[in-house]
Amino acid sequence: MPTILIIDDEEAIRNALRDILEMEDYEVEEAKDGIDALSKIKQNSYDAIICDIKMPKMDGMEVLERAQLICPDVPIIMISGHGDIDTAVETVKKGAFDYISKPPDLNRLLITIRNALDKSSLVSETKVLKKKISKSKTQEIVGNSAGIIKIKETIERIAPTEARVLITGPNGTGKELVARWIHEKSERADKLLVEVNCAAIPSELIESELFGHEKGAFTSAIKQRIGKFEQAHGGTLFLDEIGDMSLSAQAKVLRALQEHKITRVGGDKDLKVDVRVIAATNKDLRKEINEGRFREDLYHRLAVIIIQVPSLNDRKDDIPMLVEHFVESVCNDYGRSVKKVQPDAIKLLQEQDWTGNIRELRNVIERLIILSDVEITLSDVQNYVSPTMQRFNQISNLVAQFDSFETLLEEIKAEWDRKHLSI
């Protein structure tokens, strides 16, 4: 049910409009002056607003201007018993949906409200469609720091080739975005980019996910399944968190890279695949190789080109650009006007310890947009960011200390076992 806010200092007018609108199955709220109205507009969402022009404390023209800053897409219908043609023109120029003289003609009022709600609905649908389109497009890599410039230059050089790429860096730095840009700028851009999160798939299912399976290959294999390698044929396969892949799956991936062939689980037929593989990991694969958890021959197959994505703490000069980018993105997603971020608030954000990298910064900006007023201020960052991050860092330090202590216990136990066995 659409909700309409009536703003008028005359109680009789408010009551009359309420009766008319409720008979048409609209939900109605009232405000007796502009200050009361702006307070309600900040706290609630409305489908349309009817606002008187001549009111005490704050006139309707000022309410119109301020309301448009808070909810720019909500249609506002201005009414007045003292207006003329010039007043009507001025209200429409300032962004009002329409102007109606008092006492309002019932039919015209209802038609105007229906038109206003239709416009509001179209605006909402357009935003949803734009959001879907924007999400389907690859986002830009934001930043001008030396590390980011080097990554952009590397992408321009390697994207048109068929070279395999290994992208390294901590969680949340944007490794998948780098992979998408390599695909977008490659000659395979008109084909699929298929993404696989190796860490999110159980080890017993990873082979079926990558190579597919034949019907009856195992208990739950009730029909044939096409794997990610086949889905990406002619395009690009992005293996995210490849450091978490099982050794048996690594052996099959190595064969696929060497021979450009795969075999479905439970099958005996070789299938040719034409796939460019891009891999990413947050682990030190050299260390994983030394500890027997990653195949060295696969590492050399994947790491033809290595791109190291820096942590946010190593590129804090990019934070102002990233903040501006995320503010615009989040505000557009929420259908709000873009909020301004005060310089001292950005400075404080640059001083934070970003253990969660770009992903954490994006979440923080979303939190600030939701909880802040018209602007994001220094106090907003102090209230909604700093204490949370301090507690998170304290917990992270405790976890790190516990891990170190656990490692020490394991070393002591191993030394004890060695001495005990030697005796």
Explain what you see:
The structure is a single chain. Helix 13 (319-334) packs across helix 15 and helix 14 (343-350) packs parallel to helix 16. The protein is of the alpha/beta class and 423 residues long. Strand 1 (3-7), helix 1 and strand 2 (27-31) form a beta-alpha-beta unit. It folds into 3 domains: 3-136, Response regulator (Rossmann fold, 3-Layer(aba) Sandwich); 146-310, P-loop containing nucleotide triphosphate hydrolases (Rossmann fold, 3-Layer(aba) Sandwich); 313-423, Helicase, Ruva Protein, domain 3. The model has no long low-confidence stretch (mean pLDDT 87). It is built from 17 helices and 14 strands. Strands 2-1-3-4-5 form a 5-stranded parallel β-sheet, sandwiched between helices. Strands 7-8-11-6-12 form a 5-stranded parallel β-sheet. A two-stranded antiparallel sheet has the order 9-10.
Topology:
Blueprint lengths: L2 E5 L3 H13 L3 E5 L2 H10 L4 E5 L7 H11 L5 E5 L4 H9 L4 E4 L4 H31 L9 H13 L6 E4 L6 H10 L8 E5 L8 H6 L16 H4 L4 E5 L6 H13 L1 E3 L6 E3 L3 E6 L3 H6 L5 H7 L2 E4 L10 H16 L5 E2 L1 H8 L6 H15 L3 E2 L1 H7 L1 H37 L1
Parallel strand pairs: 1-2, 1-3, 3-4, 4-5, 6-11, 6-12, 7-8, 8-11, 13-14
Antiparallel strand pairs: 9-10
In short:
The chain has 423 residues and is of the alpha/beta class. It is built from 17 helices and 14 strands.
